[in-house]
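Input sequence (116 aa), recorded before submission:
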Amino acid sequence: AMLPAAVWAMLVAGFGEETVFRGYLFQWLGKLFGSAVGAKVGIVLLTSAIFALAHYPDQGLAGAEQATITGLVFGTVFAATGRIWIPMFGHAAFDLTALAMIYWNVESDVAHLIFK
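Predicted structure, token format:
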């Protein structure tokens, strides 16, 4: 019962956060700063920083660092395509992968492979 609820939460978080950070905030800043490439780069950086700060209280520095990187990726994809569903599904897939790694206790094994 807990796993389906956690999976549902990850899907909602991915779609919800992308709606807020890329769907609303990114587009609102785009109206303020325009759609030139330089403006989009600045908006990606700013929304990624805000995304990281939003994750810091619950996830600490490691979570904020991870959120910065994923925010840069999701923001760049959104800036390049203008399609919100791509970062939404990417975010949900990232969260579900992280959940599976925690659930099956493989996150430390993967970390050791990556950071050897």
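Checked by second reader. Residues 2-114 form one domain.
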